[in-house]
Fold this protein.
Amino acid sequence: SNNDTSNLTFYNSSEPIARIRAYRHGANDAGKLTFATQATGGNPVEHMTICPDGKVGIGIAAPTRGLEVVNNIAGHIARFHNDGNANGRYGMIMQVGTDDNSSTNYHHIM
C-alpha cells in the first residue's frame, strides 16, 4: 500500500506553507516524494511528484513519462530561457530516437 512515512513541513509562525512528503509506494522498498506549497488562505497542495521509477510529474501525481508537466493555465506551460552573453548560446535541444534499434536520432533545436 501507499503509506505516508515521513513529512517535512515548513511553517510561517503556526501556519504550514510548504511540505515535502515521503511515501512507501507499493512494495516496502519503493519510495515516492511529493512537494506541496500553499497559496494565501489555502492548504498545502501537492504540485510535484518523484516516483520510484524516476519519473517526475509537475501538476500530475502519477506521471507516465520521464518528465510530465500538466497545467490548466492560459499561456505557455513552461519557459526555458538562456540569457547568457557567450557566443554560441542556444535555446533547447530535444534528442529523440526511433524505436527500431537503428540508432537513428532526430534533433530539434528551438
Notes: The chain has a mean pLDDT of 81. Strands lie at 3-12, 15-24, 31-37, 45-50, 56-58, 67-69, 93-97, 105-109. The CA atoms of residues 1 and 27 lie 7 Å apart.
